[in-house]
Amino acid sequence: MKKSKFGFSKYVPIINAILDISVVNFSFFVAHFYRFPTLRWRPNEQDAEFLFLVNFIWMVILYYHESNEYSRTLSFESILRRFSGVFFLYTASLYLFLFMLNLDTISRLWILYFLITAFILLTLARIGALLFFKWYRKHGKNYRKIVIVGTDSVSVQLFHYLRNDLTLGYKVLGLFDFDRGGADLQNISSAHYLGDRARLLEYLEQNEVDEVYWKLGRDIDPHLKKVVEYCENHFIRFRMVPFLGLDVLGRKPHIDMYHLIPVVTLRKEPLQIPSNRMLKRSFDVLFSLIVLLLLAPTVFLLIGLLIKVFTPGPVFFKQLRSGENNKDFWCYKFRTMRVNPLSDELQATKHDQRITPLGSFLRKSSLDELPQFWNVLIGEMSVVGPRPHMLKHTEEYSQTVSKFLVRHFAKPGITGWAQVNGFRGETKELEDMEKRVQADIWYVENWSLLLDFRIVLVTILNMFRGEKNAY
Fold it and tell me: 167, 222, 299, 438 — which has fewest CB within 10 A?
């Protein structure tokens, strides 16, 4: 029986755990120095209990969570998103234990400094670790030898993906075909064609292989069970690439396990997870409350007064728009146009005669959108999300733009990924709307709280430097 060939990889979680505990303790003492500028620490009983808690809680979280493990295909964003959730849990647990144990003499600033320092340093440690592993693997270390069974388009794509990105740490030995002589070698060299699958077991016996990737077909292969049993008994990782009809789906699907049954969905939606929805809603409520409390007594009143003085008509403009799950809601804005019968049908265009001089300034600075923070507060909108469209346009574009209604899987936003990437304002051509929809769908599939923060920051910067499509 062969011995396990994953000597270094199994130590990675242990190394990361030691690094984490070191960073946590270093952050503890750095925070103490910031709060009490002295290199001498004379702990009392509660200080010692605090030190024990910050280590004990983190070790428990590391034990039950995979935040210190790094998949070879894991992205930076995935690591940061996962770590942010873990650290939020750590913060809540720490405060809960401090409250339960009545550790009320510990400086609140010390705790705050510790959490900020630990979050920053642990984040940098994770990024640094991933960069190190990528560098280490790129230089030919810690790689895994694999073979792929299948020579269809999906198998060839997998072959090139694993072979071309050296930072993944895979050495692709070659591909086996399902039918003798039936391989399509147009996209792979003959040196990487290892023959038909009947030779696979013989090849595994004669060569050192760490992983086998088997592309499943429409029918059950009679060789599959023998290969699985051989791999299980010889420390070879066996991975199946399911037949998903990617040529039909035309996209990256997501797989969930219902007990032992894999169920394929067309997309992964982070906001379908209740904890993520709660996190996003908490951010929406907090952010909209801050904006309304700070700006309503000043900026809102000033804009409302200017609209009343310079243009006849109401201060606010409200319009039925399409919301989450295509449910209609009243969307509020500061009125920027003269009262006209076409407001529910015609988009604003460049040099639109309906727009007032004050309205032009409000639109370019995005100040006309401020009343929508009320929509956010009452739960009809989000701070960040796909922009809501008037009902007429939703009806039209849902018939002409593929997957248009997918953007309605999320709450509409005051700003969004499409807007900060330049896809805002008038859509002169159908292609303009298609690009906006693609950006909105990308947001729905890749949401994270960090992404929302990034979009809000870029939106604020754009308010000051202006946008050419804002009119």
Answer: 222
